[in-house]
Write a structure and sequence with these properties.
Number of strands: 15
Number of helices: 16
Radius of gyration: 22 Å
Number of domains: 2
Structural class: alpha/beta
Strand content: 15-25%
Helix content: 25-40%
Largest sheet: 6 strands, mixed
Shape: globular
Length: 402
Amino acid sequence: MISSKDEKNIMYLRYLKMDLPIKQSAFLWGARKTGKSTYLRLKYPYSKRFDLLDSMLEQKFLKSPWEFREEVLKLTEDEFKHPIIVDEVQKVPSIMDEIHWLIENSGAYFILCGSSARKMRRSGVNLLGGRAYGYKFFPLVYPEFKEDFDLLKIFNNGLIPSHYSLSSPKKILQAYIRDYLSLEVKAESLVRNLVGFNRFLDAVAFCHGEMINYSNIAREVGIDATTVKEYFQILEDTLIGYFVYPYRKVANRRIISFVPKFYFFDVGIANRLASNSFDIIKGIEAGKSLEHYIFLELYSYVNLNDLDYKISYWRTHTGIEVDFVAHLKKGLPIPIEVKISETIHKTEFKNMKIFMKEYGVKTGYIICMCDRARRHVFEEGEIIIYPVREFLEDLWAGKIFK
């Protein structure tokens, strides 16, 4: 684990295991301010760095990308022993050919750090043809801050490291939304109609975590459904959010099989967009935030541990739903439901039992605000009811995805 500090100098041990073989290059992708640069600075203190957020450096390499090659070739023998770090590499896509040449001919190797590969992929830029490993970086995950675990702070502040410890996060969250979600997306030439994109963000905040209805959003925002789909794709490509698709394995019931849901990459950002704030953990909006947070932990756990699980949801045409289904191509799925209540009544087992019977699953999980774990055993199997923290402990200890 690598330590990193937020703005109040709180130290976090980051979970990412980035253990590269000698001379192996890699991409590290993650949303802005999640701590990528700090992580790399601490893990590779002797590496030469090129930060393309420096506008002078950005303009220099945009105008003359070959100058990047010349600067790398001037490095000392000792500097060549360490990976060369290029931060915000997507700002100058044209240097990728230079990086490719350097990998093949000079013995240099690179860690290419960025917040979006969209512009690079769309313009047909060289992405090194499988020569580089790929890693993802996330806001804080449970093992990194569990000594300071606080659901109210998670909901109100979110888990971007510099946001989590603040006593009054509203202004910094608003600044992140204004300066990154709006202006940076515009600056990257990903959208032309910034007013329409901002209205789209507002609309998504209120249907966040629900099945996406592109036509309804288009009518509300005043743009066409095709543009709405493109905007959602921009959010995913820039790592601002994730699609969650239905679990589509054949079942006896008619199931929703094509309509995705969408979750922002950070609970605090989603709640700020929707103007939500919390004093207590009760109510519908708190329930949505808890579901959102559990999804982010599941998604981060799978990615940081390089597992092949996919996270989906399951819903029938009659409205029977299970919040999340973790599944491999083969083997039994893992159904997970999230409840904001402190007590789970037997009637709340219905959806889980239907899913378990449908797919022959023996164990299901319900996460709630209860104070201790218990088991509900029935003819087809068992449902484990977990307090939030106990579930997270077992998840990151490898006891859920076995």
